[in-house]
Amino acid sequence: MIRLPRNAIAIALAATLLAAAPVVATAQAQQAAPAAMQGSPSELVLNNTRRVLETIEARRAEFAGDRAALQAFMIGEFENMFDRDYAARQVLGRHGRGASDEEVKAFGDALAQNLMRRYGSSLIDFNTRLQVRIKSETALPRGLGVKVSSELLRQGGEPIPVDYLLRRAGNGWRVFDVMVEGVSFVQTFRQQFDAELQRKSIAQVTRELRSGQLSPATGGN
């Protein structure tokens, strides 16, 4: 079984939120982004990471004392651009063949809620002096989308490599996977849930995720 690196689920969740917020690019941010990034997935990642880090810093005291406000912030950001249904089908893999859109959506909702409930509070512990550096933007094979490779730069520590996989959806881009230190959380969860889905229906696994009876393995603290 593949396990994410130590603390990587929390990092992946935070990284997903950093990428998933709507673009609110200030003139300063537009100037800071290279011309090649304007209107691109790279610009999306760059501007949104800056914006969410600033929001967490500005509302840190509020979020620390009001976890409901933190949860509302997280859900709002997560909903805006993360392609939850597509990612859920990737996690389900062969078990999702023939599953209805409603079953897939319910599974994706339950997985996201489970992760945010368990790891969402780690957002307020993030050092918001983090900075993001875009390394590259490359096309995925078979026209599946693009990969934006980035690093989260932190004081007193090694950079954290974070790759975002995005696909076209409507008129924009949506994140469907996040890779931390080279490990995909979609692939990780697909392998972790495979045994459960061999024995149980998607609906049963969904119920157990919602109740907290079943949770993704972290492989670390």
TrEMBL record:
Keywords, comma-separated and alphabetical: Signal
Signal peptide: 1-27
Superkingdom per UniProt: Bacteria
Any Pfam family: MlaC
PANTHER family given in the database record: INTERMEMBRANE PHOSPHOLIPID TRANSPORT SYSTEM BINDING PROTEIN MLAC
Protein name as it appears in the record: ABC transporter substrate-binding protein
Organism of derivation: Luteimonas wenzhouensis
